[in-house]
Every structure is written in C-alpha cells, then in structure tokens.
C-alpha cells in the first residue's frame, strides 16, 4: 500500500493517473457521442435510450459517481502537476522559443487552459440537461422525459450553438494532445507502431468531435 | 579574410553576480566578428574586449569545445544551444548569424540548476541523480573477457545511442517544465537493455526517479522539446521506456524485497 502511494505521488505516477483518468473519460466521450447521435435519426428512440439509461437508478448513480470521481481526480492531479512544474522554473526566460522540431503545439502547451474552459462547459452542460427543466412526454403509453425536446430547444439560439461548437473544438484539441500523451505516459508508445497508432488516435479524436459537433449544427440548420 | 566579412552584433547577455543576487540583461555591441568564429570564441572575444576596458568579463562554462563534454550551456535566442540541430553551443558558428543581428544569451533556467554567476549554472543535480543509480556494480579486478556476455548488435546499438548523452542539461533548459526526464531516461535505458544492467534494474529506476524529484525537476508533458534540442539527438522514445521501467519496477513482484 505504501509503495502504491509513493508510486502515484511521484511525478511519473501523477502523469499515469492523468493518463488513466483521461483515457477512461475519453471512453465515456465515445459512448456519450454514440448515444447522442441517435437524436438525429429519431427523437423518440433518443428519448427511449435516455429512459433506459436513467431508469436503473443503481447503474445511473454508480456511473455518475464514477465519472465525477474520474473528473475530479483528473482536475486535482492536473492542478498539482501544474503547480509543481511552475516551481521547477522560478525564474522565467527573457526570450524563449520553441525549437519547431518537436511535438509541441499551442494546444499541447495550454492543456490547463483548454481544460479549464472544458470544465466550465461541462458545468453549464450539466445545469442545462442533467439538472435542467424536465419536459415530459408520453411514448407508447409510458410517461418519460422528453430529452430530445430539451436538446432541440437548447440549439435554437445561434449563440448556444456557437458556444457548444467552440467548447467541443477545444475538447478536441485537448484530447488530441492528451490521448497521445497518455499512451506515452503509460509506456505504451512504440516507435514501430507510432505512425499507425497516430492515425488511429487522430481518427478517434476527430470522429468523436465530429459526432458531437454535427448535432447542434444539424438541429439549427436542418431540424429533426 | 576580407574586412567586409566581419560582423557587428548587438548582444543581450544575462548578468548575475551570484546565486543570491538578482540578474538582468546587459547589452553590448561587438564588432570584428568573423563568421568562422565559434559562438564561444565570440564570447571569448567579447570578454577580452571587456577586460581591456577594465570591465568584468562574462562567466560561462566550456571545456572540450568539440561537442563531447557537455560543459557549454547557453540558451541562445530562446533555444538551448542555439539554432540548428544536434549541436552543442561550442559547435555553433557565427555563420549562423547575420551582421547587425541581436543575440539574446541566457543561462539554463531551472530550480534544479541555480545560477552560479552570469551564464554558468550548477548542474550537480545531474551528478546526484547518477550517484543514485546510474551505474552497474561490478567486482574490481582485471577486466572481464569482452565476449563472455553476448549482447545482440541491435541491443548494443540501442544502449550505445542512449549512452551518448553528455549530460549537458539542454533537455531541462528547453522543457517548459524544466523536467529532467530525457536525461534520466537515457541513463536508465542505457543499462536496462543490457545484461549487465539487470541486477540493479528495479532499484536503479526507483532511486534515480526519486532523486530527480528531490532535485525539483518538473514533470514530463510529452512534447519532446528536449529531444529537439539535444546535441546527441537522444530520442523521446527513451522517456516512454523510462515510464515503462518505472511501472515495471513498482508492480513486478520480487521475492527478495
């Protein structure tokens, strides 16, 4: 147990925690995206999916507590690492440039900022949908929540659509670095598979982001 | 050499009396610089001029001046060891600059590398990391027969490419978190793939990482800025190997511990 604590408290252990929580949250993103796109095909099926997901309270609360735990751990460790890294260079450079030859990008150097904006988005997102107004509807003579109506109502305003798209775009950049970095932190990046792995992780990131982004745009311009 | 080939440069150099004092950038104009001078020769030239004028010369480190010893350590125009790939400061020549350029020269900046004076920093943190585990223990005596422990060629090459790290600290200087992961990973990789390194494989990575943290180096963000400036082009892959070795050393059971 003491070994385990020491492991997760070391800088490599903290990065591994970031990697594991980040990857699990990425897994959630994929499932969430796949569930969400149902609305484009059939709002009724989407309501039914949502009803099935939330009617089993034990499953619902376990999943919610699990996700909340992952998110909190991810955020706390990120703050701890950022503070630690800041202390590692008390006197900044007067003039510092990137070599231009590395993996460094604007988003890889601003993970804490994109992360902060994503956190703000998640809070508003939960207030809108998880804790927002529940419109009820009757489907197949069962009264269930009309989540589709809430979603469609949310994306009638251009401002809301833009906010959502910007947030998902930032999320995309966040996981674009995060996912690759996670594999490196876990020691799973091998030079031999680097190229194909890079393509696969980009497919994942762009696929998940495109799935999320298409929903508000489709609802606003085409309607369901 | 024609007189036209000589350059005049504006130099902005870090001046700091000692570790306790605050530093500042000092500006100097220097003319008569040949493009054939190395960067360090240019600094020697400046120091001679300052000495003649009765001013205090700048303190900077250098030794072999052929890219082997890892003593020279300057951040030039924001890049550790200056522009260009796979070179230490001593291998940088003034032909990389143009007449009239302003060159900004700073020391490595990291909590673990306190400034001693001007451009010279104390890199003994690296020595302490090596003392913590960057070695193999062998019985002293006559040298063993070279071929008694067979090492496949590709493994020997990999170990050797990691072993080329000269410990200059450019990786720390370039990293936005002042992380020493590339240095530690090169030293860990070098031994972990060789049969001679197996006996202390677990304790080595544990002790070296622990020492790295005690020295206040930052954590790795996997951006590979370190590899990009490394004069020996130590690949980022070593850091991934270090992570793997660290996980392995923590979770693989051993009946002797």
Written account of the structure:
- The complex is a heterodimer of chains A (224) and B (257).
- The longest helix of chain A has 31 residues, at 57-87.
- Helix content of chain A is 74%, strand content 4%.
- By secondary structure, chain A is mostly helical.
- The radius of gyration of chain A is 20 Å and the shape is globular.
- Chain B is an alpha+beta fold.
- In chain B, helix 2 (124-133) packs parallel to helix 5 (181-192), helix 2 packs antiparallel against helix 6 (201-214) and helix 5 runs antiparallel to helix 6.
- The longest helix of chain B has 15 residues, at 237-251.
- Chains A and B meet through helix 1, helix 2, helix 5 and helix 8 of A and helix 6, helix 7 and helix 8 of B.
Salient structural properties:
A: 224 residues; mainly alpha; two-stranded antiparallel sheet; 74% helix; globular; B: alpha+beta; Ubiquitin-like (UB roll); Fumarate Reductase Iron-sulfur Protein, Chain B, domain 2; 2 domains; five-stranded mixed beta sheet; two-stranded antiparallel ribbon; 8 helices; 13% strand
Q: Quick summary of this structure?
A:
The complex is a heterodimer of chains A (224) and B (257). Chain A has 224 residues and is mainly alpha-helical.
| Oligomerization state | heterodimer
Low-confidence stretches of chain B: none
* Overall number of domains of chain B: 2
Structural class of chain B: alpha+beta
Supply Rg of chain B: 21 Å
Output the number of helix runs of chain A. 9
N-end to C-end Cα span of chain A: 53 Å
Number of domains of chain A: 1
Rounded radius of gyration of chain A (Å): 20 Å
SSE layout:
The complex is a heterodimer of chains A (224) and B (257).
Chain A: H1 2-9, H2 11-36, H3 38-41, H4 43-55, H5 57-87, H6 111-130, E1 136-139, E2 142-145, H7 147-154, H8 158-185, H9 194-221
Antiparallel strand pairs in A: 1-2
Helix pairs in contact in A: 1-2, 2-5, 2-8, 2-9, 6-8, 8-9
Chain B: E1 7-15, E2 24-33, H1 39-52, E3 75-76, E4 79-80, E5 102-106, E6 115-117, E7 120-121, H2 124-133, H3 153-163, H4 170-174, H5 181-192, H6 201-214, H7 225-229, H8 237-251
Parallel strand pairs in B: 1-5
Antiparallel strand pairs in B: 1-2, 3-4, 3-5, 6-7
